[in-house]
Design goal:
- 4 copies of one chain form a homotetramer.
- By secondary structure, chain A is an alpha+beta fold.
- Chain A has a single domain, classed as Hotdog Thioesterase (Thiol Ester Dehydrase, Chain A), CATH 3.10.129.
- Chain A has 2 helices and 5 strands.
- In chain A, a hairpin with a 3-residue loop joins strand 3 and strand 4.
- The radius of gyration of chain A is 16 Å and the shape is globular.
- Chains in contact: A-B, A-C, A-D, B-C, B-D, C-D.
- Chains A and B meet through helix 1, strand 2 and strand 5 of A and helix 1, strand 2 and strand 5 of B.
- Strand 2 of chain A pairs antiparallel with strand 2 of chain B.
C-alpha cells in the first residue's frame, strides 16, 4: 500500500461527543451545514485523496454519487488490508445501508481527507461513521452499515470475537461499539 | 424526452402505508431484506433504465455508488422537466441528505424500474422517497432531501406556494407532504 | 436478457464502404464532424440505452469517459451472451486498444443507439468498429481491439476456428474480417 | 492547487525518440506490451494520483473507461490552470479524438504517475501524448486531440500565437510540435 494510503493513526477513545446525526426520516428544513460539525481527529482511520475532475457534475461541484465512492475508499482500504483481520476467508461484507449528510459543496481541484471510525459492532453487522474533509472543513459525513455474509449462501453470519476485537481498534472517539 | 424516460402515471393518494424506514443511526443486525418491502405502485413518478456493465464492481454486483446515480436519474428527470414547474429561475436544488437501504444484490444485464414519490414538503426543502425495482422486487430504497437555494447566495430560500402545489402532484401514496 | 438489450438484427454484408477512420497519429486540424459519417445500418449488433445525467460533466455534455462505457456496453453484451459462442471457458478478453472519434456533443436527456461490427479477425485478437447514434446522427465512433488471453497465464492465445466463425456473424457491412 | 497536483518539472527537449504508436486501424495480433515503452521522463507535465476501488470492474483490474478519466486529469489540470495561458476567455476545448493503448493491467490499491507532453500544435487543435505509469512501468498511453472552439458558435477557431507559444513549454521530449 502506498504511503498516501496508509492509515495515519490509531487514536485513543476519549469522552462522549454527542454529535447529532439526522435520522433518515427527519425533515431538513434548515441546511445541515448549521449542525454540529464532526472533528476529523475523532476518526482513527484516515486517508487522503484527490478530487477528480471526473467527480464533478454540471453544477461544477462534486456529484453526490462521487461521495459514495469517497466513503467506499475508506471502508475497503481498511477492510481489505489483511493486516487488519476484518475479512475472514469464505465470508464477505455486503452494504445494507448508507446515509450521507452533504454539509458543503466541494470543488475541483483539491485534496480531501477521509476519516472513518467504527460506531457500532453488532451481531452480524458493523456500522461505520465516515467523514470527508476539505481544507479543514467537514463537507460530508455518513453512516454505513455492512453485514457479514457467507459467500456461498449470501446469508448473514455472526461476527466472531476475533473480528469484533479487531474492529475495536478503529472505534470512533467517544463510541464504545455498543 | 424519449418514451422510455416518460413518467408513467400520476397515481392517487390512498390510505396510510406505515412502511418502516430505518433511521440512519439504527443498527442493522438483521438484513434489511426482511423489512416490509415498498410497493412500486406507491411511487407516482416512474422511469425505467438499463443496468450497465459499468455499474458493477469486483463483486459482480451493482456498486453502491451506482445506486446513487439511479436515484439521481429519477430526481433530476422530474425536477428538470420544465413542465413540472419545480425549478424556478435563479434558484437551484442542493442535496443535503441521502439515505439508501440496499435490500438485495443487483446484477447485469437487466432492466430497472425507478419510482419516486414526495414524502415531505418542508419550508425550504423537499424529501423524496425513491425505489429501484428489478424483476418486480425492490432492490434498494432511499430518502433524499433537497434544499432550494438562491443561486447567487447559495443560501436556502422558502418554497413558494406554487412549487409546493406542484410537488403535491407527486406525493408518495399514503403521504400528504407534511 | 431484457428485450431492450436484444441485438436487433444480423444484417448481410454488402459492398465496400471505404469509410475513412483517422489513425491515432493524424493531426486533426478540422473538426472530425466533417468526415464521412458511419451508417448505423452497417453495424449488425445493435442496442439502445439512455443517456444518464451522471454521464455529463461541467460542460453540460456527455464526458469522454462515458463514451468508453457506452462502447463497453455493446462489446460486453455481445461477448458475454453465451449464445454467441465468443467466450471460451478458461480464456478472457483483454482490451489492448481503444480509439474514439468524438463527432458531436451529446446532451441529456436522450436515447442513444449503439452499433457494433467486427472489422478484423486476427490471430489472437478481434477488432470492433463501434458507433453511438443520437437522433439519427453519429456522435461518436470507435475501433476497439481485444486480445484473447489464457486466464491463468494472462498471455495471448490464438482464436479457434469456431470463435472466428462466430465472429463472422457480426462483421461490419463492407468488411470481410481480414 | 494542492502539492500533489503540482506539475513536477518542465523538462528540456532532447533528441528524437522515434516511439512507434499504433494507428487506430492497425490490427494488433501481438500484445501491445511488447512495444517500445514510453519513458515517463519524456513527458514534461506530471501528476500523481491514487487508483480508486471504484476504478475497478468485475475483472478486478482498472476498467478501460477509468483510464479515460486518468488522462482527463492530466489534461484539465494543465489546461484549466490559468497560469499556463492555454484557456482564452470565450473559447473552450472540445475533445475530438482519444486513442488509448492499454499496455498492462492495473490493480488496486496503488499510486499512478501521469505524464503529458504536447506532440503537435495544429491550426485549431493540439495533440497530447499521455501516459499512465505504475511502479515504474507504463500501463497505458494515449494520444488526445482537442480542438479550440468558440463557446458561442461551437465552431473551431485558430490558435493564437500566444497559445501556441504557451503549449511549446510542454512539448514531449523529441517533439517540436509540428
Amino acid at each position: 500500500m502506498s504511503p498516501a494510503m496508509q492509515p495515519l493513526a490509531v487514536t485513543q477513545q476519549l469522552g462522549s461527543m454527542g454529535l447529532q446525526i439526522l435520522p433518515e426520516g427527519t425533515p431538513v428544513n434548515a441546511p445541515v451545514r448549521a449542525d454540529a460539525e464532526p472533528l476529523l481527529a475523532d476518526f482513527p482511520y484516515r486517508l487522503s485523496d484527490n478530487v477528480r475532475f471526473a467527480d464533478l457534475d454540471i453544477n461544477q461541484h462534486v456529484n453526490n454519487a462521487s461521495y459514495a465512492s469517497y466513503f467506499e475508499t475508506s471502508r475497503v482500504t481498511l477492510m481489505k488490508d489483511g493486516a487488519n483481520g476484518l475479512q475472514p476467508d469464505g465470508f464477505g461484507w455486503v452494504m445494507v445501508r448508507l446515509g450521507i449528510n452533504f454539509r458543503a459543496e466541494l470543488h475541483w481541484p483539491g485534496r480531501i481527507d477521509l476519516g472513518l471510525g467504527v460506531a457500532k459492532i453488532g451481531r452480524t453487522s458493523v456500522s461505520f461513521d465516515q467523514v470527508v474533509f476539505s481544507e479543514g472543513k467537514c463537507v460530508a459525513s455518513a453512516r454505513a452499515v455492512n453485514v457479514l455474509v457467507d459467500q456461498a449462501t449470501r446469508k448473514p453470519v455472526p461476527l466472531t470475537d476475533g473480528i469484533k476485537t479487531n474492529f475495536r481498534r478503529w472505534l470512533r472517539r467517544g463510541y464504545d461499539g455498543s
